[in-house]
Amino acid sequence: MAEKHFKYVIVGGGVAAGYAAREFARLGVNPGELAIISKEAVAPYERPALSKAYLFPQGSARLPGFHVCVGSGGERLLPEWYTEKGIELILSTEIVKADLASKALVSSSGEIFKYDTLIIATGSTVIKLSDFGVKGADAKGIFYLREIDDADQLVEAIQAKKGGKAVIVGGGYIGLELGATLQINDLDVTMVYPEPWCMPRLFTSGIAAFYEGYYANKGIKIVKGTVAVGFDSDSNGEVTAVNLKDGRTLEADVVVVGVGGRPLTTLFKGQVDEEKGGIKTDAFFKTSVPDVYAVGDVATFPLKLYSELRRVEHVDHARKSAEQAVKAIKASEGVGSVEEYDYLPYFYSRAFNLSWQFYGDNVGETVLFGDTDPASAKPKFGSYWIKDGRVVGAFLEAGTPEENQAIARVARLQPPVDSLDQLAADGLAFASKI
Ligand code: FAD
């Protein structure tokens, strides 16, 4: 079987791979030294676009428009860019076996790739309802969204079922973004999730009440406190209804499931230390195995600000961890230098005309400030999280770039607060003064 050798191999061709490639190019890589091996058929792209502009009925985002690194305002790395730099993009190639001891990867077609240094950037996969044995969960018309192929299938279904009924299972990022895009596409949308409010891992009940009210005003129905336990389908195997645990049935022409992800670490199980569901790394994204790094969704790394190991499934960290690992690799070769990773968690989402950002840690007490009326012409509000008398996290809907920078600064500097009432009254002015 064919065997190829590269000085550096990145397994996985998503967000982290793209930003790593750019950093390699910046610090210097010779033609033929670097390969990116990806299951997907396209060069690295900004994955968050898939649940947003990719699904718009008009002016939808399409490749090559959102290849990395446009998401962070950088140069767009088209497939030709990799060719020019002599970086091999080995696409539509799934690695099915990794032997870290002999520094070899094997693809599903039996090709062997050897490396001197490996960067694991395999990201996450979706959790499927069929994983829990939900009845009828493999019917046609039930979609998940992780890769561009999934998005293409969903676009086709959205177009075919215009005017029909859509059920969104899950009230997290994907559920909220998909609820909005399907409504914009003229589907009659119902969302269902078990928790008392949407995005409970981040949102307080006060934040969630705004978004749920806003969605209701758009005609989106929200069913809380229950889960999908089965699906009905017609004689063609197409989904027709979602059966809920509370006994209700929701008619459905299209179902989108967003119930979470799982980091893709199986290839490396037993070969590398793991922690909190991910591959354990140091502050330079080095794993327990020499010459093997892990970045993006799969990495459990020291979050210096909170003196804790964490795994972060967000695009900003995917970009920054990739750059950090490449800096560390090049520094070990005597090129440039690298400092310990000191990450400030940053999450964001956009749906309808809404756009929020969050920085820091969502622990401790909370205060809500601003205009939280979902019927306002220009709603603008936020929340602070306060732990041990210091503001440790901040959320802002509809912030300007300067205001978003201000809440980021607060989350980084963790200023003390004397009175929560005063903080609520000061609202955004508190952040702007820091
Ligand atoms: P990925 O970008 O997932 O890339 C992993 C790549 O590895 C994929 O190309 C995959 O096919 C490939 N791969 C996996 N296994 C193998 C194998 N065995 N062989 C070969 N290739 C393999 N984050 C935010 O902060 N804000 C958002 O608004 C947001 N929106 C999102 C919307 C959607 C629809 C999704 C799916 C995610 C969103 N995220 C968002 C999360 C963000 O996209 C991820 O955190 C980020 O993409 C992680 O980057 P990564 O490089 O680690 O993994």
From TrEMBL:
InterPro entries assigned: FAD-oxidoreductase/Apoptosis, FAD/NAD-bd_sf, FAD/NAD-binding_dom, FAD/NAD-linked_Rdtase_dimer_sf, MDHAR3-like_C
GO-annotated cellular components: cytoplasm
Domain Monodehydroascorbate reductase 3-like C-terminal: from-to ranges: 344-431
One Pfam family cited in the UniProt record for this chain: Pyr_redox_2
Tree of life domain: Eukaryota
Organism: Spirodela intermedia
Family: Belongs to the FAD-dependent oxidoreductase family.
EC assignment: 1.6.5.4
Cofactor: FAD
Annotated ranges, domain FAD/NAD(P)-binding: 6-322
Catalytic activity: 2 monodehydro-L-ascorbate radical + NADH + H(+) = 2 L-ascorbate + NAD(+)
Molecular function, one GO term: monodehydroascorbate reductase (NADH) activity
Gene3D superfamilies named among the record's database cross-references: 3.30.390.30, FAD/NAD(P)-binding domain
Entry protein name: monodehydroascorbate reductase (NADH)
Keywords of this entry: FAD, Flavoprotein, NAD, NADP, Oxidoreductase, Redox-active center
